[in-house]
């Protein structure tokens, strides 16, 4: 399994096509665009491998509890007004060289607008792996390594709420959050 290097988005597109990955549906429905994968790749949030072709990412997830409920992202709204359902805890892909804990703090700031004084974040993470088809990039197998932290954050609203995404160049404009039973 070789980690691939691409100097331009056109080479990435050619590799995807040559690997039999159809990107015609990307940028439609719930899928992100080829440009989004390019930005993710060039920022160090993912790497791509061949034999077989795959995307690899490390993800910091933060489980925020309130009684018997957990905070989940109910939906994301793209900048072009498309919307997709999520039902996932706050999560952020690690950038090249970033620690899982630093990515967890970045997630809490960018997606929820929280500051360090607003959150009690656990010191260690549980690590698990999963392989599957990416909903963001259909047809591109993805290996996920999850670094899961426990946290509490009392300043969040009790009802479902929106937060604008503060991450630069992110295709997601805002997130809908809510508390759901585990």
TrEMBL record:
Protein name in UniProt: Nudix hydrolase domain-containing protein
Gene3D superfamilies: Nucleoside Triphosphate Pyrophosphohydrolase (3.90.79.10)
Signal peptide: none
Any Pfam family the entry gives: NUDIX
Source taxon at top rank: Bacteria
Span of domain Nudix hydrolase: 59-156
InterPro entries linked: NUDIX_hydrolase-like_dom_sf, NUDIX_hydrolase_dom
């Amino acid at each position: 399994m070789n980690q691939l290097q691409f100097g331009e988005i056109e080479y990435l597109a050619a590799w995807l096509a040559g690997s039999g990955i159809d990107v015609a549906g990307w940028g439609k429905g719930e899928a992100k665009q080829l440009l989004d994968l390019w930005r993710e790749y060039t920022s160090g949030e993912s790497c791509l491998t061949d034999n077989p072709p795959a995307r690899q990412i490390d993800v910091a997830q933060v489980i925020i509890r309130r009684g018997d409920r957990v905070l989940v992202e109910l939906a994301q709204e793209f900048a072009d007004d498309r919307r997709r359902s999520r039902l996932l805890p706050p999560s952020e892909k690690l950038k090249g060289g970033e620690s899982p804990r630093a990515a967890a703090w970045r997630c809490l700031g960018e997606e929820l607008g929280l500051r360090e004084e607003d959150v009690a974040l656990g010191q260690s993470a549980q690590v698990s792996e999963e392989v599957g088809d990416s909903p963001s990039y259909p047809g591109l197998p993805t290996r996920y390594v999850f670094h899961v932290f426990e946290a509490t954050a009392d300043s969040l609203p009790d009802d479902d709420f929106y937060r604008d995404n503060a991450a630069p160049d992110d295709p997601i404009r805002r997130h809908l959050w809510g508390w759901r039973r585990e």
